[in-house]
Amino acid sequence: xxxxxxxxxxxxxxxxxxxxxxxxxxxxxxxxxxxxxxxxxxxxxxxxxxxxxxxxxxxxxxxxxxxxxxxxxxxxxxxxxxxxxxxxxxxxxxxxxxxxxxxxxxxxxxxxxxxxxxxxxxxxxxxxxxxxxxxxxxxxxxxxxxxxxxxxxxxxxxxxxxxxxxxxxxxxxxxxxxxxxxxxxxxxxxxxxxxxxxxxxxxxxxxxxxxxxxxxxxxxxxxxxxxxxxxxxxxxxxxxxxxxxxxxxxxxxxxxxxxxxxxxx
Amino acid sequence: xxxxxxxxxxxxxxxxxxxxxxxxxxxxxxxxxxxxxxxxxxxxxxxxxxxxxxxxxxxxxxxxxxxxxxxxxxxxxxxxxxxxxxxxxxxxxxxxxxxxxxxxxxxxxxxxxxxxxxxxxxxxxxxxxxxxxxxxxxxxxxxxxxxxxxxxxxxxxxxxxxxxxxxxxxxxxxxxxxxxxxxxxxxxxxxxxxxxxxxxxxxxxxxxxxxxxxxxxxxxxxxxxxxxxxxxxxxxxxxxxxxxxxxxxxxxxxxxxxxxxxxxxxxxxxxxxxxxxxxxxxxxxxxxxxxxxxxxxxxxxxxxxxxxxxxxxxxxxxxxxxxxxxxxxxxxxxxxxxxxxxxxxxxxxxxxxxxxxxxxxxxxxxxxxxxxxxxxxxxxxxxxxxxxxxxxxxxxxxxxxxxxxxx
Lengths: 265, 407
Known about the structure:
CATH class of chain A: Alpha Beta
CATH architecture of chain A: 3-Layer(aba) Sandwich
Largest sheet of chain A: 10 strands, mixed
Helix content of chain A: 25-40%
Shape of chain B: elongated
Structural class of chain A: alpha/beta
Number of strands of chain B: 3
Structural class of chain B: mainly alpha
Largest sheet of chain B: 3 strands, mixed
Helix content of chain B: 55-70%
Order of helices and strands of chain A: HEEEEHEHEHEHEEHE
Order of helices and strands of chain B: HHHEEEHHHHHHHHHHHHHH
Number of helices of chain B: 17
CATH topology of chain A: Rossmann fold
Oligomer: heterodimer
């Protein structure tokens, strides 16, 4: 009886405590690439860790390697539907005519720009100078040069960090849920978390034309979704991150955001 | 009824006892780690075998990829080669596995990453008066790797936070079932855990000091130079704080490193312990200055521009204990000039005047000496100083302006 009660309690909590948030921004004139375009996907920056009982993410080498393979395959499958020519770099030295150092510099520049986008678009430090301009960031001349050298139209940068609740963390949540029966209810200690972001750069202009952040989080350990260690989970993540790319609308009605405005489900 | 009472009090005792034990094992003062107990825990070519360490190594390999390609690095082959040789000398069994990167950051710091690569800040090189001092810091960092500190402290953290998470949850659930509130105990246990984590970190630093001093003494470096590094740091911190009218921070329960004072005291004892009577120890000062020579000006320039006159002045005076020269006198003048308190301009003028008496005075010493002479109305001497500046630095950004002053 008690056992069934516990299962019921967990089942009732599950939909409340797992959520996926995503929010994308796009350049005003942006339309998602279609047809005959050439896309360069930089080495996806993927980390999978195990969330310890005490709540510390412990990086796992084997899981990360699995996840990188799964994510690369999922991006290839997802982009295949759009008809473009896609190259995905697994290493920095795989781009003919471009040194690993140049690729690294581009990645680091993008990282700095992405930090800035996150700070000023997502974390509330809005800039008055960028109001009404959609997404107004650029990687500059270096990106244009990369495009000229390689002939690609777009570059896509991806970052994914996945925390998987360890057995101990799940037990902790179960104990917290069991406490509900005696008046100390703490099932939502926090479980799997998946934070991903991606930016698309137009290599003709150097501008960042589209940016998306996906945060998938379950409060109850043991409930997992988009587990990057599995091909299905990786495909789900890639679909959330890249699958709903929307055109930048004409801004000017005082709204900066375009696309999904904090879509929740 | 009473049986239940007993059970609860036993439970609270257990939690309370845990806190007491945690509190006992904390405390800023820790027993000194003896150098002779410090045996390297890794051999040559070490690779991790367990999954937690493998995960950390993979992450750190990516960190190294970024750090090794950073544009903050000073990549002069002579200087980086010298650092590589140095860690190869004092690196114990892993000597050939270490990598060392020199970052252009004007701060006293060096760090070892879990996979065996070290990052040394350029500010450290400015503060070291000889090779033995630098070898001491590098051997300390090597000690972290040789004693497997990162993985040991990771496991310690993981174990303690795991226990705390479960114990807190049990206290909550158990307390609710028993009808008592154990929240206060949980908070105490949290503090206790936190404090043991910090004290564990300090214990590792003490181990690295003991390991380091043993390594440098074995390599023939004067072990007494290692406590001197801390003496210098204490002096610098005190001077910096005095200038800002603050007190130098002393050790607290929340420090990750033992206070410089306790490290100084421990290292002095350890230095005496590792010294073998009759063995010849050297500080290799000349070799150090020979390699560092061309960089010293950049390092001094960085330091002076930190706008920390107390620390900068202390540093210059410390370096001058090995003899004044034109470079040190010039930057002494720069500290006064940039501080700009009443009387500082005269002090700066004196320093510039002293600097140009040395053969190694930098071009800028003549420029500023000339400006001060001009202000004092000594036009002829000023022109001579400017002329010297232009000979030394014909392509200086302000060359046209100075040339006009001379003509």
